Amino acid sequence: MKKKIAILGSTGSIGKTLIEIIKKDKKEFDIILLTADKNYTDLYNQAKILNVKNLIITNKESFKELKKKKLDKINIFNNYNSFNNIFKKKIDYVMSSISGISGLIPTIKIIKHTKKIAIANKEAIICGWHLIKKDLKRFNTEFVPVDSEHFSIFYALQGNKISNIDKIYLTASGGPLNNIPKKSFKNVKISEAIKHPNWKMGKKISIDSATLMNKVFEIIEAKKIFNLKYHQLDILVHPTSYIHAITKFKDGMIKIIAHDTNMKIPIFNSLYSKQIKSIKTDQINIKKLNFLNFKKVDTKKFSSVKIIKRLPNKDSLLETFIVLANDQLVNLFLLKKLKFIDIIYLLQKLINMKEVMSLSKKKPGDISSIVSLNKFVSKKINKIIN
Ligand code: NDP
Ligand code: MG
Predict the structure, then answer these.
(1) Taking the model in full, what pTM does it have?
(2) Most buried of the four, 11, 65, 211, 290, by CB within 10 Å?
(3) 218 CA distance to ligand 2 centroid (A)?
(4) Which pLDDT score is estimated for 201?
(5) Ligand 1: residues within 6 Å at CB?
(6) pLDDT classification of 79: cutoffs 50, 70, 90
(7) Rounded CA separation 95/107 (Å)
(8) The pLDDT of residue 197
(9) pLDDT of 331
(10) Across residues 345-357, what is the average pLDDT?
(11) Could you list which residues have their CB under 5 Å from ion ligand 2?
């Protein structure tokens, strides 16, 4: 029987990579739903090529444009309330790959409609893991992390227990500014900040890789997914990104997971998991293995990493504040309203505010309490910028 699948954010970097994999094995899949925000042209083309049944496009203008196109037998919606109409029975697989906090609501809403959910959207995991975890259990839905570091830990854990984990190192390439001195950070242009040496990704996550905020997020993600304490997690700079995570177990064994620097690998594995399927990859790269070149992060240069020390081990609203504030600051940089160096400078200044730090004692609540924090964040950012 064909696998029924849905992709939230099919027009993005992760979504398109998954579509490339599916196209090679078209007969095996029945695409029930694809979603996008604005990019109706790519969504329309994907729908035609893959014979998709339903589309959701959230941007109003794009929704109107998409409606004008000839799409016989395809239902077009513009919000996620349509999930109940679209999914009559549980489907087999969902990829959650919308970028930013906008991914939170659809990710949570879709859990009950699928047997398995692969989540790339790190904002949903950081801000809403307490809700996701509850629904995964309630609806008996399997979860696979997609971020390469977390997929590597997940893979290393096969045949092992989370309670056996002693320490985990996540690797960081160091991003496009690894070899640029801090004094030049003032003048970093958008084009330089998004030019990642090893990965081709969406704009927002590329900027986060340049500030190393992406790694801060990944530490929080790992802490939540694998139920760890912050002292059990650390970062190692590893410029070639051949190793993704190193997991040391309490029984003394260490698993070092390597794979080609290509998101296709975790995505492919999240889709096929228990089935044995092969993917075309390079031979083992001995040259890279002989030159792993791990280093501690230079926190003077990448001060974002110091934020980890401020985080409480208990889930709190502070993590959500940081995600939302960083989201808005990166946006301002992309709109050329802030300098690159201001992203982390202002983020740290915000975290130092008493009212913000007090969020570290507040438990994250339901979806609306998470999403409504955005107004508070905007207010604080406006105050600090003015
Ligand atoms: P992209 O920016 O390339 O794509 C984002 C997708 O989400 C697009 O389909 C976009 O639609 C859609 N989208 C954006 N904003 C909204 C919105 N407000 N409402 C609904 N849909 C929206 O992102 P990536 O694919 O790079 O990343 C996706 C997620 O995966 C992020 O959370 C990222 O941190 C995470 N991730 C990505 C990795 C990568 O290699 N790219 C690696 C690990 C994690 P449209 O095209 O119409 O704008
Ligand atoms: Mg990653």
Answers:
(1) 0.97
(2) 211
(3) 7
(4) 85
(5) 9-15, 36-39, 58, 97-100, 102, 120-123, 147, 199, 201-202, 205, 263
(6) very high
(7) 9
(8) 82
(9) 95
(10) 96
(11) 147-149
Q: For a pocket test of ligand 1, which of 18, 58, 201, 328 has the largest count of ligand atoms closer than 8 A to its C-beta? A: 201
Ligand nearest to the CA of 327: 1
Answer whether residue 186 shows pLDDT above 90: no
Average pLDDT, the chain: 95
